[in-house]
Design brief:
This protein has two domains: about 5-185 and about 300-385, Zn peptidases (Aminopeptidase), CATH 3.40.630.10; about 185-300, 2-Layer Sandwich (Alpha-Beta Plaits), CATH 3.30.70. Helix content is about 35%, strand content about 25%. It has helices at about 5-10, 10-25, 30-45, 105-125, 145-150, 150-155, 210-225, 265-285, 305-320, 340-345, 370-385, and strands at about 50-55, 60-65, 75-80, 130-135, 160-165, 175, 180-185, 185-195, 200, 235-245, 250, 255-260, 290-300, 300-305, 325, 345-350. Strand 1 and strand 2 (about 60-65) form a beta hairpin.
Length: about 400
Amino acid sequence: MPVLNRIADFHAEIAGWRQDFHAHPEILFAVERTATQVAMLLESFGCDEIVTGIGRTGVVAIINGKTNTSGRTIGLRADMDALPMSEKTGLPYASTKAGMMHACGHDGHMSMLLGAAKYLAETRNFDGRIALIFQPAEEGGGGGREMVQDGLMERFGIAEVYGMHNWPGMPIGQFGIRDGGIMAATDRFAIDIEGIGGHAARPQQTIDPVVVAAHLIVALQTIVSRNIDPLKSAVLSVTIVEAGEADNVIARTARLQGTVRTLDEAVQDQIIARMEQFIPAFAASFGARATLNYMRGYPVTRNTPDQAAFAAKVAGEIVGDDRVDADVPPSMGGEDFSFMLIERPGAYIFIGNGNSSELHTDDYDFNDENLTIGASYWVRLAERALPSR
């Protein structure tokens, strides 16, 4: 079954919402305007219940089906926040806020779910309840965790939960999904190195933390290349190096920061243990001291088997089975939808954004051709998960 005709009829309206969100980005939990606009639209559609302030600034709306003999509620989630970066697209609807930009397509995610909400509120061709979840602070703030801790699943009786993200490089009209880990755990670390500072002309009287840091950056790569099973996935990247204030002074301290990405909790634990053991001993071999501060971030986004297969089948109804990759390669990017999938079975799917710029770049834009495809997917998923009796 292709894109729904009724949704295609109001494509321009959905695109208008999307471009308005794009022009007025907000970050982390400070999404007051966005959440207000979302709630106003949901109210105009005739949703049966609208609750704001879940997980600080999240919005949840309930749409009741024509019947509710199933007693089941299915959750559909979209993220609302933008990124703290400047836009350089030059589009007529480009960001009006300095240093804020919808560079990950959350404007499109909201709009696709709103399009589905409008249709579902009109038709109600399902047996049960749909919970529309609009989440703040996906970009590093853990808004998904906050909504879960605020009682999202229990308060609304959610039995299963589904999410979707646009995917640059995947053609428009295609979907990708997989059973198990589809996005990685996203951890951070900081390493503080302490040596002995001094005059740059007399390095023999110092223990140079910059030299220790330089060797340590290279040595850390052996944790993945020589300690982790090559058939497992892991990334360890040092992304920030800080040391020194003058070119004729050897600093006393240096700091390294970076990220670890894994798709398997056992691999994650192995890397942490190896770093804790390795880093102090490595620094000591130079006569320096080093301490590790390791911070676990978002968990692995792990699809449950039955729900992943179901989502793939629904996507095939919209675009054709041949345009659904049910074993798409996982991404080492992260997603706090993972916290919702820990609480309930569900699935996270990628929708092709075509040949667009990459996510988190200053010239990225969500492809409006996606809007009716994604909205149709949400509608069919709701109707198939809660078939009318």
